[in-house]
Amino acid sequence: MKSPDLSDLFLSFLRLGITAFGGPAMVVYIRDLAVRRQGWLDESTFDDGVALCQSIPGATAMQTAAYVGLKSRGVWGALIAFIGFGLPAFFFMTALSSLYLRYHTLHAALALFSVLQVIVVALVANAALLLGRGLMKRPAQIGLALVSALLFAVGASPFLVILLGAALGALFLRVKRRGGSPQGAYHTPLDVRPILLVALFVAAGMYGAFAVSPRLFEVALAMFKIDCFAFGGGFGALPLMLHEVVAVKGWMTGPTFMDGIALGQVTPGPIMITATFVGYLTEGIRGAVVATGAVFAPSFLFLLITTPLFDRLKSSTYFVAATKGAFATFLGLLLFMTVKFAFLVPWDYTRVAIAMLAFAALLKKVDTFYIVVAGAVLSLLVFR
Fold first, then answer.
1. What is the C-alpha separation between 260 and 84, in angstroms, rounded?
2. What pLDDT, on a 0 to 100 scale, did the predictor assign at position 120?
3. Angle between helices 254-265 and 107-135 (to 10 degrees)
4. Of the candidates 84, 86, 333, 349, which lies 20 to 30 Å from 294 by C-alpha distance?
5. Per residue in 185-214, pLDDT tens?
6. Contact 330, 54 (CB under 8 A)
7. Distances, alpha carbon 345 to alpha carbons 41, 114, 241, 255, in Å
C-alpha cells in the first residue's frame, strides 16, 4: 500500500466532497478512491474501518474519510481527510442558509419548501424502513424500537432513551460468539497524545465560543452532545437535533428545521451538515462555523479512540449488544420523527402524490439529490 502526500490526501477528499451526493453511498465513493484508484488501503482494512464507523456514534461517511487518512498517514492524515471531505458541504450549506434567510418568504420560495418538506417526510420514512429491515430478525429489538418511539412521543429525552436502549441491549441482546479472539487482537497500542491534543483543541474552541457569546456556547454544546449520541450516522442525529433545536431550545420551528434538512439534501456531504443551517440561523456566520465544528468533533475523537481498540470492541459481546440496543432506539426515534414531520405538512392530494412518488423513488435507490431537484421543479410548476 502506498502512502499519499498530505496535500494529495486533502485535494483528493476535497474533490470527492464537492461531488459526494447520496448519503450512505458516499462510503462507496470513498472506497473507490482509497482502494481501487489510489491503493492507499487494501479491501480488508477498509472494510474493517466501515464496520467500526457504523458501530460508533458520529457521521459515518466523515469518519470513513478520516479512517482512510489515519491508516495511510496517521493522525494528521485523518484530520486532513476529515476537513477536506467536509469543507465543500460547509461552504454550500452556508451559502444556501444565507439565501434562505433572504428569500424564504417569497412566494416561489414558499412553494419550493412546501414541496421539499413533503420529500423530507419521505426521506425520514425511508431511513426508518432501511434501519428497520436490519432489525426485523430480532423481535426484542423491534419491541425496544416501539417502546422508544412511545417514550419519545410522551416527551422523554432522546439522550436518556438511547442510554436506556444501550443498557438493555447489553443485558438482553448478547449472542455468544464461536471461537476465541483473533490472535494478537488485544495488542494494538493506543497513543493518547494525539487524542489529548485534539480534545484540548476542542475544549479551547468551546471556551472561545463561551467567551464570545453564551448563546454561541449553547449552540456548540448542543451540537457536540448530538454527535456524541448519533448512532446510525446522519439520520440518527436528526431526531436528536430536532429535539434540541425545536423542542428544547426553541431556536426555530419544525417546518424551518425541515427546510434545513431539505437544503442538506441538495448539498454534497453528510446530512449532519444541517447543523450548519441551524448555526447560521441562530448566530449568523460564526454560528455556522461553531455548530459545524461542534457537530463533527466527537466523530473525529471517537474514531481516534476506537480504531486502535477495534479488535477488542468487535469481539466484545457487551459492546456489540449495546450497539444493537442503541440502533433499536434510533428506529423508534425515526418512526416518531416521521409522524411528527407528517403532521407539520399541510396535506392535499398533490402533496400526497408527491410524497408517494418520492418514497417509491427512494425504494428504487434513486439518488436523493435528483429526487430533491425534481421536487423543486414540481413546486415551481404546480404551486406557482
1. 22
2. 87
3. 80
4. 333
5. 444 566 788 889 989 999 999 999 999 999
6. no
7. 46, 8, 19, 8
pLDDT, tens digit, 9 for 90 and up, residues 78-121:
999 999 999 999 999 999 999 999 888 777 777 788 888 898 89
Q: Are 62 and 292 in contact (CB under 8 A)?
A: no
> Which of 233, 185, 197, 189 shows the shortest CA–CA distance to 78?
197
- Comparing C-alpha atoms, which of 119, 96, 115, 88 is closest to residue 21? 88
pLDDT at 182: 46
Single-letter code of the amino acid located at 251? W
Q: Are 85 and 62 in contact (CB under 8 A)?
A: yes
What is the DSSP secondary-structure string of 220-281?
HHHHHHHHHT-TTSHHHHHHHHHIIIIIIS-SS-HHHHHHHHHHHHSSSS-GGGHHHHHHHH
CA distance 97 to 275: 11
- Whether the pTM exceeds 0.90: the reply is no
Quote the cell numbers at residue 94: 452556508
Neighbours of 188 (CB within 10 A): 12
Buried b / exposed e across 224-237, counting CB within 10 Å, b at 16+?
bbbbbbbbbbbbbb
Instruction: Give the separation between CA 326 and CA 158, rounded to whole angstroms.
Output: 11
What value does the mean pLDDT of the chain take? 85
Nearest CA-CA partner of 285 in 219, 232, 374: 219
| CB 60 within 8 Å of CB 231 | no
